[in-house]
Amino acid sequence: CIVITIVTPNFLSVSNITNVFTQVSVNAIIAIGMTFVILTGGIDLSVGSTLAISGAVGLLLLSQLETYS
C-alpha cells in the first residue's frame, strides 16, 4: 500500500476510499455474521452457496421487472 500511495497520487482520495468501503461492505457483513456463528459453536459452511443462490434469485426477479429490462 505504501508503494501504491507514492506512485498513484489519487490512491488516498476520498472517492477511492469510499469505493473501497463500498466494495468491501458485503464481504464484511458476511464475515461478521460468520464470526458469530463460529463463536457460538454452530459452524455452518453453507454461507457461500446461500449468497450465490440469493444473488441468482435477485437477478431473476430484477429481470422480470419492466424497469430493468
UniProtKB/TrEMBL annotation:
Name of encoding gene: rbsC
Q: Which InterPro entries match?
A: ABC_transp_permease
| Pfam families linked | BPD_transp_2
Annotated signal sequence is none
Q: What is this protein called?
A: RbsC protein
Q: Which UniProt keywords apply?
A: Cell membrane, Membrane, Transmembrane, Transmembrane helix
Q: Name one GO cellular component term.
A: plasma membrane
One term of GO molecular function: transmembrane transporter activity
What is the protein's membrane topology class?
Multi-pass membrane protein
Main location, first listed in the record: membrane
Compartmental location: Cell membrane
Transmembrane segments in this chain: where?
Answer: 20-39
